């Protein structure tokens, strides 16, 4: 009986070690497949200094960002949907005010 217990314990430990080893190999394979440990892949974003960085191989400075922000603000000065939304909301507000005025009798 003792010999059987030792053999079963040894078999269970061997199989458990095999499962752990397989999980480790699977983890490494997944990382290699995703490219985490591939030194040939460059990062998509890097910061070189507080005012300069690199995004997808193009150097970007804070001045570029300011220019783009200013351009977006100029383009966003007139937004068709925004103006239509404001007009619709004003019309609905006035309509409800008149409806409430008629209902309340004032």
UniProtKB/TrEMBL annotation:
InterPro entries named in the record: Uncharacterised_YqxA
Name of the protein this chain belongs to: DUF3679 domain-containing protein
Lineage: Bacteria, Bacillati, Bacillota, Bacilli, Bacillales
